[in-house]
Each structure stands twice: as C-alpha cells, then as structure tokens.
Design goal:
This protein is 43% helix and 17% strand. It is an alpha/beta fold and 944 residues long. The chain has a seven-stranded mixed β-sheet with strand order 13-25-26-27-23-28-29, with helices on both faces. It has a six-stranded mixed β-sheet with strand order 3-4-2-1-5-6, with helices on both faces. The radius of gyration is 37 Å and the shape is elongated. Bound molecules: adenosine-5'-triphosphate (ATP). The site of adenosine-5'-triphosphate has 14 residues, from α22. One of its GO terms (biological process) is mismatch repair. One of its GO terms (molecular function) is damaged DNA binding. This is DNA mismatch repair protein MutS.
C-alpha cells in the first residue's frame, strides 16, 4: 500500500512555508498541485524527493537517504539518477504510486536565479509510454467508466442506438500506441466483466459509478477531475480527436467516458492533445465470445493459476514475430469472434499459410524485422522519438514492399511457390499494406545510418539532405583538417621537432612547445597556458580557425536538431497511415503465427455447423498439456446433435472417474478448442465441427480454487448463480466438482439440481466432472444427460493393487473412485492405505447385504449411494429414459427413491419437493429448501 504521507506537501515544510528557500518552495508548490502523486524534482542530474516522499523513495528504490539543510531546517532527501530513472520509476509504480516528474524546463546556465521547473508528465500504471516500463506483449490501458442517468439514448450514430445500451460506458486508451476503445454495457456486472477482459492497468470511475466489490481487477484506481465526465466538457474534448463524436459514439454516456479517459491521458502526458489518438473505435462486447475473469483464469488463457506449474495457452499458441503481432494475437484470444464470416476469413488465411510453407516462412522472416511500429509511431507523434527510432521505423517500412512481393507472388524468395495469395483475408491485408514511399524516402534521405541516441549533438542528419548543413559541416571539416595539418607545417616553419598541436575543453586548440625549445618560438605565437615542462601557444590564424570550427559545429548541431524535428513532424503527420499499416502487419503476423503453430503441432481447421449438429471433436487434445506430456491420449467429444452411431446425443455430459484420471484436462480441452476456433486459429484435434458458441462458463470446484476473500463456497455459489442466470442454449458450461465446498449431502443436492436446471431450463452444452456418483443416475432420468468416464486399470504387475491411468474417455459412468489407489500412488503410508482398503471392502460388502436383504430403512448414506445400479445396467436406451422421464424431473429424484412409505411427513416432503419450481430457484434457495426438507425428514425419524 502506498503511504499517504508521502503525497501532497510535506507537513514539516508547511510550518515554515514562507521561509523556505526558493527551490524548496517550488518543490512545495508542485507537491501541493499534484497531491495524488509522488513528486520527483529535478536537481541537475538527479530527481530528488524530500521528507516522507524521500523515505519512500529510499526504501522502495534502495537508494541512500541523505539530508538537505537550509535556513529553515534539515529535510530528508533521496535522489534518483536521471539516466536510469526508468527502473526506479518501475519500482515506485509497483509499490502503488503515481509519479509526477518535475523537470527543469529552463537551461540552468541561462536561468537568472532559480531554474524553472514544471511537471512534464505523470507516470501512472495505465499511461506508460516508456518502453523500459511496458511489457511488449500486452496493450496497456487506462480505462474510465461512466454511468448514464437513465436518459441516455443513442444519438443516432454507429451501431444502432438503443435504450438497452445504457447505462454504463467504458472507454480505454493505450497511451503508448494511441489505441482508443469505447463500449456500452447494460449494467455494473457486465461492466466488471468487460473490465476483467480488458485488464486495464488503471481505472477511473465517474460520478455515481458503483461496481460490485468482488471484482478481481488488479487495476489501480485513480481519481480525476469529475467535471471531465460532464457531457459538454467531454463532447468538446472528444471533438478535438474525431470530427463528429456523435457519428462514432452511440450515447451520451459513451462520450462522457471517452472524454474523461482522454482528459486523464492528456493530464498525465502533460500534453494538450494526444495527436496520435487518431481513431476512436467503438465496439460491442456482444460481438465476441463472452469469457469472464473466472473463465480466463480457469482455462489459463493468459496466466496459469497460482497452483499450476504449467504454461498458459498463449505461450503455446503465440509464435508471432513482432510486438504488434503479439498484442494482436492476445487481443484475438481475449475476444474470440461470433461472426462466422469473420472467423472463417481468418481460417481461410491460416489455411493458405499452412498450405504454403515457403510463403509462410518468408513472411515470418520479414515480420521478424518489424519493430514495435505502433509504439514507435506513438513516440514520433508525441515528439519523443529519437533518430534511432526513426531508423527503426524505416527498417520496418522497408519490409513492406517485400511483404507485398511475397503476398503478390512477385518475389523470387518464395521459390516455386510464387503465386498471388488467394484467400480473401490475405488479399485484403495485401491491399492494406501501404508502402508509404513518401515517408520512406524522407527517412532514408534524412536520417543518418547509425545515429546517436541524443538528437541535440549532431550526427543525426544524413549528408546531402540539406545544403546549408552540408556547408557548415564542410567548413568544420576543412577547419579540422587545417588544424590536423598544422603540426607538420609548424614543425617545419620553427624547426622544433617536438612541437605538438592539441586541444582541450577549457583552452581550445594550442601549440605546445617544450621548455628547451622556447627560444625558437616565432613572434606570432601568443602564450595561452604554462605547464611544468612546456608552454602552450596559439596564433591568430589558429584562433580564427578554432572559432570557425566551433561556430560551424554549433550551428550545424542546432540546424540538425531543427531539421530532425521537422522530419519527425512530417512523419508524425502520417500517423494515421502508419497506424493502419501497423494494423495490417499485426494481423498478418498473428495469422502467420496461427499457421506456424498449426503446422508445428498438427492442428486442423475447424468447421462450423449449426446448433442442431452439436459439438463434435474428434481426437481432441489439450494444447498445453499435450506439450508437456510425452504421450498425450487424444479424446473425442460429442455434445448434442445427431450422430450415426448413437442417434440423438444429449448436451450434458456427467464426467466421472478417479482423481488424476484426466477429467479436468478433458473438459478444458473442449473449451480451449472452442476458444481457439472462434479466435481464428486451427485446433488441436483430428477434426472438429462446432456450432458458434456465445459464451464459455467455467466453475471450478472449491479445492481447485485460488480466489481468496469470500468464503470459497459462497464464491462458488455466486459463480454458479451467474452461470445459471446467463447461460443460454448456445453456451458451453464446464463444471468441475461443483458443490464440493459444503457437506456431501448438500453438495450432491446442489450438483443434481444444477444439472437438471441446465438440462431443462437452459439447454447449454455442459461438461460436469464430479465425484458424486449419484449424478450419473441423471442419465436415466433426463434424455439430454449422458455419462462419460475416465477409466483406470489396475496394474497386474503389482498384484492388481496399483493403478494406471489411461486418460481415455469412455461412455457410461465410472464404477469405482479408485481413491485408495491414488492415495497409495501419492505415497500415503502403507498402513493407512491397507486400512482404507479394508474399510472400503467392508462398506461394499455391507452395501451388498443391504441390497440383498431389502433393508432400505437402515441404509447409511454410503450404502444408499452404493445401492445405485451398476454403471452398465444404468445405460438404458434413450427411449426408455424419455418414457420414464415424461418431461417432469422431480418425481424421479433419487434422494427420495426407496422412501415410499405411508409416513405422512415423507409424503409432505415429497409434495413440497414436487412443488419446487427449479427454474425459479437460485442455488442458494435450493440449498435452503433442501436443508429444510432434510430437517423435516430427520425430525420425523427422530420422532418415530
Ligand atoms: N489425455 C491425457 N493424456 C495424457 N495425460 C493426461 C491426459 N489427461 C490428463 N493427463 C495428465 O493427468 C493428470 C491429471 O489430469 P486431470 O487434472 O485432468 O485429472 P482429474 O481427473 O481432473 O483429477 P482430479 O479429479 O483430481 O481433479 C495431469 O497431470 C495431466 O497432465
């Protein structure tokens, strides 16, 4: 947590405010003005902080705490060398601070009295522009959320206005690239979900915005002038970026969010207007597959969960060659598409690149030469690019004609494979590859080939670009040559063989004569400096030449700087075109990467079908696990649709099997195939035919959960609530061990009720991994439910008592939990293992007795469970199941099976249970109702 006392004016200075020295008074003022940031104050080559802020800086950056004394007292002080400020800034940001950088804005030598200082930028996590501070792989956003007042209706702009689009709007800017995104969201929950997906580094909340507390946003929350969210101010600001805000943005609330985020970005950059934010893109989250934070996390798309040693999906499927490509691929994975045409356009391009390996490799070779052009152009237009940046831009632009040639088939580097690309998407990208000849010519003729970092010290402009500059440099060169020749000519003229011509910073050029030769010094020599063994002189001509050389050099340096700035501005004027080019390059790189990964890992192009056909994956693999296991067992997945072998297929699979048998891996691989397919990638399978899904939900059981804070069970239930509310018959739902966080009886009941609800009220494609074997009975009762299991075989070599996992999914329910064997594998002491085994056997025998002896009344919970018919006999025909089921689910509830007594309480309980409208019952209500029913049954037993 940042320390509040390090922000704002230091109290110890407040007491003596009027007596502070001018410099500290200036510091004090800046602290007052930027009171939400830690002020770093330039003093010469250092950024200094004082008082509490100094203590924070010393501690956080591990620099020495010193003191500054003046007439008013002694103040702690800590300084950071400006030359490598970036790494220190990084630490301060990590510690949760914003940093206001106060630079000297006046040349110290020219200043009369106190050097003027001003805050030139505010470094915050969401508004970074320094390459050193930015990860290349991800966009870095600051986001603002505004809330509508209910009167927000579309202004008739893009995207079709509607009331349903309010009342939240979210706007985000990546200050390093100029990307600006805006969208509307119907409520706070959706807003959080979108924020989780966007993962901004910093967040501004507008007036009245109240987001749920349980959000898992790592973003720093910053406060900014609430007036920036006002409509008129916002509209004016947005108007400075796009000609007609109403044509781009759809509602007042969007304008307000966008205005506010731009205002904050401007504030942090110390700029009037961010020239390179040249486009504002409005998007609709409904156009992409919804993946909330829970899904992103549990599918490990971008990060592995805390407990996992594996790699995230993105690691495996990202083989991009350039930074823009890397960010693009991530954005695609974050937002898989819903529009079949767009998805298939990507697949078409990937397919062509998979097919044409020479073309693919040539493209990737060229893309590897591309610099981070999005950020480069950002720096160019912020006026922060140096000559090396412009050279990098040129190198990047120089690849474009070659990329074009490769795609057009006119390049001989692709050998026999020289055809014009055929897929529509690649053709479109080819059209978008603007060679920017004007910009390239300018850069090539203007910028030196190996320019220095500094742009003020000359050497950045190429010879031949500017005649005046060339004249000045020629004068300088001639002068230097004259000096270089001087030694020889003076030796000859004076006859002093040891005479030397040299130069130093203080005295300039000199002729040095050793003491024994002083009598031979000519009259036109004037003494400049006396050393121990020699004297230094100059002549009028040397002096004149020196002035000429340094005058020319100085004028050339400053002319070079002016020319450089002019070139940079001319390039900046083409920002929009360069950004469009960058966009096309990023797409091309992401597509080529998908193709390379598909080839390397044997992925196939998925096909899309209708929901009537269901999901069908043949020999699917988990893209990450398959890379870490020597042998990965592929598995089919079929949910919904009609199939030749088994007719109508249910959409809900109850997946059982021992621990470690591969259930979670299997379920996730289905989801990952869906995500990859809709992102435009090929998929790890032999074949896949998929419907287009609207959302992937995941609910991973308590034991696998790393989220802290709330009670894990409570959290599990609230996530379940989200799923049951929001899933549709076009969603994929993964449930892993749902209900584990509470008592077995409750958990089982919830698991069952949930499955029934998904089957009857939702119709979502569902994979439900569970250890509750009772759940497999549902396949009998509901025709949309079927069982899958993962088998393990006992290893004959170890007396049949240890277990081998086959990782192979099979139809039907598992017949044993193999828990004891897994315990043994895990190294549980032999005594405990054998005792467990004995207990299991005893229970099984007991259960058999019970079954045989019709002793239903005494059945314990375990026995009741074992009483279920064996897995195989449970596989009834779908017609059977449908007949039994009759469309009503409650009557078949196995919890009460076998309890058909005349007992009045049981009958009441049954009746109440039958009345329960599951379609309108939340899991928690169901839990309470079940608890209540159970108590009533127990009460009756106790009483009887
Ligand atoms: N198809 C497969 N081929 C090869 N190895 C696999 C396969 N599926 C899973 N594995 C490996 O088996 C181990 C267990 O897998 P997983 O976590 O999916 O099991 P699980 O049944 O979900 O276990 P639990 O019930 O304990 O959560 C993992 O280490 C995984 O790498």
């Amino acid at each position: 947590m940042p320390s509040e006392s390090a922000l704002g004016p230091p109290p110890s200075m407040t007491e003596v405010r009027d007596e502070l020295t001018p410099m500290l008074s200036q510091y004090y003022e800046l602290c007052e003005r930027y009171d939400d940031a830690l002020v770093l104050f330039q003093v010469g080559d250092f950024y200094e902080a004082f008082c509490e802020a100094a203590e924070v800086v010393a501690r956080t950056c591990e620099v020495t705490l010193t003191k500054r004394e003046d007439s008013t007292g002694t103040y702690p002080m800590a300084g950071l060398p400006i030359d490598n400020a970036a790494s220190y800034l990084d630490r301060l940001l990590d510690a949760g601070y914003r940093v206001a950088v106060a630079d000297q804005v006046e040349d110290a030598e020219e200043a009369s009295g106190l050097v003027d200082r001003a805050v030139t930028r505010i470094v915050t996590p969401g508004t970074l522009t320094d390459d050193e501070l930015l990860g290349a792989a991800d966009a870095n956003y600051v986001a603002a959320v505004a809330r509508g007042d209910g009167s927000d209706v579309g202004t008739g702009g893009a995207g079709g206005a509607s009331d349903a689009d309010g009342p939240y709007a979210l706007a985000a800017v990546d200050v390093s690239t100029g990307e600006c995104l805006v969208t509307s969201l119907p409520d706070a929950e959706r807003c959080v979900e979108e924020l989780e997906r966007l993962a901004p580094a910093e967040l501004l909340l507008g007036p009245g915005v109240d987001l749920p507390d349980d959000r898992s946003l790592p973003a720093m929350e910053s406060a900014h002038d609430p007036d920036a969210f006002g409509f008129d101010a916002a509209r004016e600001r947005v108007g400075a970026y796009v000609p007609s805000p109403d044509a781009v943005l759809d509602a007042e609330v969007e304008v307000r969010a966008c205005g506010a985020v731009l205002a904050y970005a401007e504030y942090t950059q110390g700029d009037e207007r961010l020239e390179y934010v040249s486009r504002i893109t409005r998007y609709d989250p409904r156009e992409s597959l919804r993946l909330d934070a829970t899904a992103l996390r549990s599918l490990e798309l971008f990060e592995t969960r805390g407990d996992s040693r594996g790699r995230p999906l993105v690691d495996v499927v990202d083989d991009t060659a350039s930074a823009p490509g890397r960010r693009r691929l991530r954005a695609w994975l974050r937002r898989p598409l819903l529009d079949r045409e767009r998805i298939e356009a990507r697949h078409g391009a990937v397919a062509e690149l998979v097919e044409r390996s020479l073309l693919r490799e040539r493209l990737r070779e060229l893309l590897a030469e591309v610099y981070d052009v999005e950020r480069l152009v950002g720096r160019v237009s912020r006026g922060r690019a140096n000559a090396r940046d412009l050279r990098s831009l040129l190198t990047t632009l120089d690849t474009v004609p070659e990329l074009r040639a490769a795609l057009e088939g006119s390049s001989d580097t692709v050998g026999d494979d020289a055809d014009h690309v055929a897929s529509d998407h690649l053709c479109d990208l080819l059209d978008a590859l603007d060679t920017l000849d004007d910009v390239r010519d300018l850069l090539r003729s203007a910028i030196a080939e190996e320019p220095p970092m500094e742009v003020t010290e000359g050497g950045v402009i190429r010879e031949g670009f500017d005649a005046d500059l060339d004249d000045l440099r020629a004068t300088e060169r001639e002068g230097r040559q004259w000096v270089a020749d001087l030694e020889a000519s003076e030796r000859e003229r004076t006859g002093i063989d040891s005479l030397e011509v040299g130069h130093n910073q203080v005295h300039g050029y000199y002729i040095e004569v050793t003491n024994p030769n002083l009598d031979r010094v000519p009259d036109d020599y004037t003494r400049r400096q006396t050393l121990k063994n020699s004297e230094r002189f100059y002549t009028p001509e040397l002096k004149r030449r020196e002035d000429e050389i340094f005058g020319a050099a100085e004028r050339a340096d400053s002319l070079e700087y002016d020319l450089f700035v002019e070139v940079r501005e001319r390039v900046a004027a083409e920002t929009d075109r360069i950004q469009r080019l960058a966009d096309a390059v990023a797409d091309l790189d992401a597509l080529a990467s998908f193709a390379a990964v598909a080839v390397a890992n044997d992925y196939v192009c998925p096909e899309f079908g209708s929901h009537d056909e269901g999901i069908h994956i043949e020999n699917g693999r988990h893209p990450v696990v398959e890379r870490t296991r020597r042998e990965f067992v592929p598995n089919d997945a079929r949910l919904g649709g009609r199939h030749s072998e088994d007719g109508e297929r249910g959409r809900i699979a109850v997946v059982t099997g021992p621990n470690m048998s591969g259930k979670s891996t299997y379920m996730r691989q289905v989801a990952l195939v869906v995500v990859l397919a809709q992102a435009g990638s090929f998929v790890p399978a032999d074949a896949a035919r998929l419907p287009i899904l609207d959302r992937v939900f995941t609910r991973v059981g308590a034991s696998d959960d790393i989220a802290g804070g709330q009670s894990t069970f409570m959290r599990e239930m609230s996530e379940l609530t989200d799923i049951l509310h929001d899933a549709t018959d076009e969603s994929l739902v993964l449930l892993d061990e749902v209900g584990r966080g509470t008592s077995t009886a409750d958990g089982r009941a919830i698991a069952r009720a949930t499955t029934e609800f998904l089957a009857e009220a939702v119709g979502a494609y569902t994979l439900f991994a569970t250890h509750y074997h009772e759940l497999t009975d549902l396949a009998e009762d509901l025709d949309s439910v079927f069982n899958l299991h993962f088998a393990a075989s006992r290893d004959p070599e170890s007396d049949g008592e240890s277990v081998t996992f086959l990782h192979r999914v099979r139809e039907g329910a598992a017949d044993s939990s193999y828990g004891v064997e897994v315990a043994e594998l895990a190294g549980v002491p032999e005594r405990v293992v054998s005792r467990s085994r004995a207990l299991v056997d005893a229970e099984r025998d007991g259960a058999d007795d019970v079954n045989g002896a019709d002793g239903a009344d005494e059945a314990t919970e375990t026995q009741a469970a074992s009483r279920q018919p064996a897995a195989d006999s449970r596989q009834r025909t779908l017609a059977d199941a449908a007949a039994t089921n009759g469309g009503a689910h409650v009557e078949t509830e196995p919890v009460v099976e076998g309890a058909e007594t005349d007992d009045g309480v049981d009958a009441d309980v049954l009746a109440d249970l039958a009345d329960l409208d599951l379609a309108r019952t939340t899991p928690l209500e169901a839990l309470n109702a079940l608890h209540d029913l159970q108590r009533r049954l127990e009460g009756a037993e106790d009483g009887g």
